[in-house]
Amino acid sequence: MADSPLPGLLDRVAAAAGRALRDHLGVDGEQIDKLVAFAGRRLTGEFEVDPFGFDPELTETVLLPILRPFYRHWFRVEVRGIEHVPDSGAALVAANHSGTLPVDSLMTQLAVHDTHPKARHLRALGATLVFQLPFVSDLARRSGTTLACNEDVEALLGNGELVGVWPEGFKGVGKPFSQRYKLQRFGRGGFVSAALRTKAPIIPCSIVGAEEIYPMIGNAESLARLLGLPYFPLTPTFPWLGPLGLVPLPSKWIIEFGEPIRTDDYPPGAADDPMVVFELTDQVRDTIQATLTELLELRGPAFG
Amino acid sequence: MVVGVARHLGARLAARLAAEPGIDRVVGVDLVEPAESIGAAEFVRADIRTSDVGRVMDRAAPDTVVHMNILATRADAGGRTPQKEINVIGTMQLLAACQRSASVRKVVVKSSTTVYGSGPQAPALFAEDMVSGAYTRRGYEKDAGEVEAYVRGFSRRRPDVGVTILRFANVLGPDIRTGLTEYFVLPVVPVVLGRDPRFQLVHEQDCVDALRVATVEHRPGIFNVAGDGFLVLSQALRRAGRPIVPLPTLGSPFVGGILRRTGVVDMDSAMVRFLTYGRGVDTTRMRTQLKFDPVYSTVATFDAFAGARTRGGLLDRDRIRAVEHTLRGVLTGEDTRGR
Predict the structure, then answer these.
(1) Which residues 194-223 in chain B show a CB within 8 A of chain A?
(2) Minimal CB count within 10 Å: which of A188, B66, B137, B156?
(3) Within 10 A of A132 (CB to CB), how many other CB atoms are there?
């Protein structure tokens, strides 16, 4: 195909047309050219995913740009303490979880990528439910999320990745609006033992603003059970307004990364010592709770 | 002694071993005559599901037995019932014969990463010690797990025999025919809506080489064998130039029935789950302990296969590239070919 004369001729004509466009009409196709090259690579399968299914090119070219308007203009995210996130090497970011839908993990991923000097990717950990749903599971893997299980966390930290965990899980994201900014139980502390085993520092991360995006005023439990979901949210707008109810409320967000908690000065075997694990878990939890209270005061009204 | 030489990989391994200078004699066993040449190896007809195999073993007195008679696709066996008989009863008979034999020093089993299953709760990378019975298992997944359980039982009873289990990712290449190869050459490929499973591949040449290493060297243990890197299904199908039809599920009797009846591809539940959730295995041990480095990466394996089998698909890559070059020519005013 490359040797046949017709496409060669076509290409020369195309190049001439392009030169004419650029030189005489001042049309610069550089940006569109990049997109066409990208589309060409996607259509011919010229891209790479890592063992966890992470597709950096797709994430940077498509997924993050879709989220960016929400991040900048809708939630007006303010990021503090990004200098606590190391430039290289493993670290575990542990954050509070809220908002009915896990929009906070997406925004944190974008916050790290856009404000960190090395534009690091935060590799989020997701619940099993994420990987049971079609489309969601696919997008999650593409954007670097993997299953929250010890094997995967340790493998990622072992590779020197920056990993994000929301230890409250469904208890946090699906809690009623009246419980906002009250941290729930932190699972079984599996993330702490993974950090201890790989000697990765834990960075407490406090997110203010996500609580108000879909205020959950009720939970249709029987419907949730029927659909096999952990909860079925009722908000002031959902499901009453149909798809419109899915539009998040424009609350003001602050994401603060706290001082890293070191895990490399514990004796070997600490990861299997429940006392050490519980103490560290509590330390992370208390730090986040205290920062949340401070940030709430600093932010003022939610929709201001 | 190589059991299961009627099919492609078995025949190639038998021929390869027979040409090896350090090996005096290679006996190839199967129920049917090999379709391909097995080189200097001798063919012995025996039914692995009966005690025939024990008699062959008494006569041949092999020091090494390579078990490759585990069938992944029911079509190869002529249905699910014979498939299970061959896999499970066949393995039991073969191991019984090995246990009795005074000559056997080493057993090599060609297993598969299917033993890990696939599902939403699976870790991204399975290491060798992560086999769990937590997932629902049916069909070939169950067979693969049971076969390994019998092999482990055997190695407990005969600790003097070195046992190597190689768990291969899906084997692909220009010559081999499996359920997956036939799936990839469909003119229009059905996929699960909203799913893009990732997977690893082994080139057929690497598969034979890994089995050779396990047979010739002494490397007891369990090893995952897969090429470097990953592919996702949509990416693979684009590399093969195949258009897709997304379906809500591949597991419904309706879809499965149409595919089977029209003779295109026979998908069992294990393959459906694989094409929904994908799978990944950790190959560290393959490098450090088996000391085996595959020549072909996952992508190179797929391209070798695609180059031989999937020319001229509807969305041929060359055509897309030609369109891309022309378009970029207009945009930049430069001939982008070769850039």
Answers:
(1) 194-196, 198
(2) B156
(3) 14
Any idea where the domains of chain A sit in the sequence? 5-43, 56-213+248-299
Q: Do residues B244 and B262 lie in contact, with contact meaning Cβ atoms separated by under 8 Å?
A: no
B330, A152: Cβ pair inside 8 Å?
A: no
Q: How many CB pairs under 8 A join A and B?
A: 149
Distance CA B297, CA B229 (A): 6
- CA B148, CA B129: separation in Å to the nearest integer? 12
Write the pLDDT tens digit of every residue in B63-114.
Answer: 999 999 988 887 777 788 888 889 999 999 999 999 999 999 999 999 999 9
Closest Cα in chain B, distance from residue A41 (Å): 9
The nearest alpha carbon in chain A to B322 belongs to A7
Of all residues in chain A, the one with the smallest CA distance to B278 is A53
- Please give the ipTM for the structure prediction: 0.84
Longest dimension (CA), chain B: 76
Label residue A99 by pLDDT band (50, 70, 90): very high
pTM of the prediction?
0.88
In this complex, is the C-beta atom of B333 within 8 Å of any C-beta atom belonging to chain A?
yes
In angstroms, what separates the C-alpha of A292 from chain B's closest C-alpha? 32
Residue of chain A whose alpha carbon sits nearest to that of B276 = A134
Q: State whether B124 and A52 contact (CB < 8 Å).
A: yes
Distance in Å, alpha carbon of B333 to nearest chain A alpha carbon: 4
Question: Which ranges in A133-273 belong to alpha helices (H)?
Answer: 136-142, 150-158, 170-173, 190-198, 221-227
User: At B247, phi and psi to the nearest 5?
Assistant: -120, 150
Residue-level pLDDT at A2: 42
Q: What is the pLDDT of residues B108-162, one digit of tens each?
A: 999 999 999 888 888 999 999 887 654 556 778 888 888 999 999 999 999 999 9
Helix ranges restricted to H, B158-288: 179-184, 204-216, 233-239, 253-261, 269-277, 284-288
Please give the Cα distance from B306 to B180 (Å, whole number). Answer: 12
> From CA A56, how far away is CA A46, in angstroms rounded?
13
CB-CB neighbors (< 8 A) of A14 in chain B: 325-327, 329-330
Q: Is the pLDDT of residue A1 over 50?
A: no
Q: Which CATH superfamily is domain B2-174+200-226+280-309 in?
A: NAD(P)-binding Rossmann-like Domain (3.40.50.720)
* Cis amide bond preceding B21, omega within 30: no
Q: Is the Cβ pair B330, A11 closer than 8 Å?
A: no
B198/A49 Cβ within 8 A:
yes
